[in-house]
Design a protein that fits this description.
This is DUF2808 domain-containing protein. It comes from Phormidesmis priestleyi Ana. This protein is about 20% helix and about 35% strand. The strands form two sheets. Strands 1-2-8-4-5 form a five-stranded antiparallel beta sheet, with no helix packed on it. Strands 6-7-3-9-10 form a five-stranded antiparallel beta sheet, with no helix packed on it. The relative contact order is 0.22. The protein has two helices and ten strands, in the order H-E-E-E-H-E-E-E-E-E-E-E. The N and C termini lie far apart (about 60 Å). The chain has two domains: about 35 residues; about 140 residues, Immunoglobulin-like (Sandwich). The longest helix has 30 residues.
Length: about 200
């Protein structure tokens, strides 16, 4: 073997051993770093790779939540802490995938109720308008929801989509005199989860 080739083998051996030692040093350093404890999610649903900030995540309860169920019920809660002003109009927007997968709402079975859980006393509603083309539901109230009041949008008789999906329902609200609706929060719904095909 020539001196030149021997020198090359020697140099590449030193390079490989240097890389190995550097990798071992990095691995040792990383394993010695303290592990930070994780924070558990306190709201229904999962949050992988982003999602809604926790301060805007709204709580909810779903019932009869099977794929294609025509008796699904969504109880979409809004804590009083989100209600800085009285509200006369609610707008809920949802992803097109909900209706593209055969999901549907029954406007005759959409109510607004005071309280928590599934709600208590009904707040009179003047009109509910569902526009599938723009993927939104407008709820016009006969009387304002007062500031600092917890309430529930109770939607029953829903036709669930034909397969599981995570659907973000966004809530906007208007007070008398507002020019534009303001964002109150988002429900991250795990729709058609029971016995769903994932």
């Amino acid at each position: 073997m020539s001196a030149k080739r021997s020198s090359l083998f020697s140099m590449s051996g030193r390079l490989l051993s240097g890389l190995f030692l550097s990798g071992a040093a990095i691995a040792t350093t990383l394993s010695a770093l303290p592990i930070q404890p994780g924070i558990a999610q306190t709201n229904p649903g999962i949050n992988i790779f982003g999602g809604v900030d926790s301060e805007y995540r709204l709580p909810y309860t779903l019932r009869n939540n099977q794929p294609r169920s025509t008796r699904a019920s969504y109880y979409l809660r809004v804590p009083g802490t989100r209600m800085e002003r009285a509200v006369s109009h609610l707008r809920i927007t949802y992803p097109e995938a909900f209706t593209n997968r055969s999901g549907a709402f029954n406007t005759d079975q959409i109510e607004v109720r005071r309280g928590r859980g599934t709600g208590d006393a009904a707040i009179p509603v003047q009109e509910v308008v569902w526009d599938p083309e723009s993927s939104q539901i407008d709820i016009y109230l006969a009387e304002d929801i007062p500031a600092d009041t917890s309430f529930v949008v109770a939607m029953t008789g829903i036709r669930n989509p034909n397969r599981f999906g995570m659907h973000r329902f966004n809530l906007q609200a208007e007070s008398n005199g507002d020019v534009l609706p303001r964002y109150l929060g988002t429900w991250e719904l795990l729709v058609a989860e029971d016995m769903g095909n994932r």
